Amino acid sequence: MRRKIIIDRSERLHQIPSSLFVDLRRKALRAMKRGVDVIDLTAANPSEPPSPKVIETICRAAGRPESHRYDLGADASVFGRGIASWFESRFGVSVRPDDEILPLLGARQGLVGLPLAFVNPGEVVLLPDPCYPVYRTGAILAGARVETMPLLERNDYLPNLQRIPEETARQARMMFLNYPNNPTTAVADLSFFSEVVEFARHYNVAVIHDAAYLLMPSKDNREPSFLQARGARSVAVEIYSLSMAHHLGGWRIGFAVGNRQLLAGLMAIGGGRSALPAPVLQQAALTALVDEATDRPDRYASRRDLVIRGLRQAGLKVRRAKKMPFLWVTVPGRYTSLGFSRRLFRRTGVLVTPGSGFGEQGSGYIRLSLTVSEERLREAVHRIGRQKALWHGKRKRDGATEDTGQD
Predict the structure, then answer these.
(1) CB 37, CB 379: distance < 8 Å
(2) CATH number for the domain harbouring residue 275
């Protein structure tokens, strides 16, 4: 009889929690098999195609033989020059196209790769709490010690740098930030970014600013780039994604701008030039950024107004999001974020993301995506509004079972 081979995962992999969104999607699929009409408001996943001009660019480029080769730098140089011109036009910041811009296979490549390239085991990575779970994944894979910076409503969801212990600050190697913020929808101004640059330069900390939602259209498009802060290029890299803003989620295309040493390390950890996005995707990204009008309509504005109005009429407290494809909602009454999301799903078939999945400070909130159709959002709000009887009592701590709606 052949001996069964047991292949154990590494200790680091065991430290990474299972994907929140995968778990929620499985839950939705199980319910749908039982005949439940599920309205899934968990993942921020583009529901509309890119613009016709972007689609035309992809189709035209796909017909050229050279589009299917490995990109060893030539197309990246074209991409770099295009992004540099766009960046200066949009933010008034001049960056060098050859070594301060790097195309990425989606933002995740940069968010996970940078800790692997620059953080040694045991060194500190500062993460906002709550935050996009991928930041923690990258830090854990690098063997880092994670220290969190609470994002509190009373502080407009900005980390208080003065509250970071001196010893922790001196041991810190890297800091992650994200504005406009996922999941809280908060925005930051240039004065805060300048404060971060001063902190980073004082303690020799690399700053990774996840600007995935900075490209989302709004009425004024005035939210600043982190690199507009004086001295930011000496300490920071800013990572962009075209997934939501330009509806290119499935294509996995993004780019990083900023400190050339950080970008060189990221490229080395990713396998060099051979790991760059396909030329056709780089061309599509340039078309989306450069050729499309800067006054694009906010496709989520009417959905956002509809849901905010409906949830407030139902007695829920909702933070008004200026340009984000989701909302940050305070959990009412006696529930935890996990308990409330479970109870709401059982009662209504509406699946939302518990805030505690983004970190300890997310407890007491849920995140609600706006990327389904307006008709489905209207139905979700109607179902939630019929559950006003749930909005009473005092909230329990996460983990409690009494009156929390937990399984």
Answers:
(1) no
(2) 3.40.640.10
